[in-house]
Structure formats: structure tokens, C-alpha cells
Amino acid sequence: MIFNSTTYYVCHFRILYLVYGCSIRAYAVKTGELVNEYEREEGKLIGVQLHPVKPEVLVACSENGELIQWNCNSKLPTSVVVS
Q1: What DSSP string describes the chain?
Q2: What pLDDT digit, counting tens, does each position of 26-54 carry?
């Protein structure tokens, strides 16, 4: 896997979460296999982080300033906060 200077990612135990346009891709660190993809309808994502209190929740930031949350067990966003 090759990363460029505009790639945003976070690694948590065995999963690497990588921002890819309007989605976050989850890869198994050990095998490199794509294990999940968290998508949204529109708006480029510019960052990703695991929730500081709930490690099962991914939080992403869009270029519009929205915060989008996904439960790691679901492919659909659980909430969107518009700034």
C-alpha cells in the first residue's frame, strides 16, 4: 500500500482506517485485506479518528466542516454534526 502526503489514516490494533475520497476504508493490518468500507453520499472526507471514549466509533471530518460518526459494525453513518 502506498500513501501520499494527503493521505489520512488511523491504526487501531489490527485495523488500518484510511480516508479515500468520500469513504473510509478499513484494512486488516496483517493481511492488507479490505475488510470494510464506510461511505457517505457526498462531500470529501479530510480526516479520521477513533472516538476518544468509544473505540467502536469512527469519527471523520468532511471538507465542509461536518463531523460524521460510524459504528465500526455498520456501514451507514450513525450521526452527522454540521458546524
Answers
A1: ----TT--EEEETTEEEEEETTEEEEEETTT--EEEEEE-SSS-EEEEEE-SS-TTEEEEEETTS-EEEEETT-SSEEEEE--
A2: 998 889 999 999 988 888 999 898 888 98
Query: Tell me: the pLDDT tens digits for 73-82?
Result: 887 788 788 8
Q: Which domains does the chain have, with CATH numbers?
A: 9-81 (2.40.10.480)
Based on the number of CB atoms within 10 Å of its own CB, is 49 exposed (0-12), middle (13-18) or buried (19 or more)? middle
How are strands ordered across the β-sheet holding 34-39? 9-12, 15-20, 23-28, 34-39
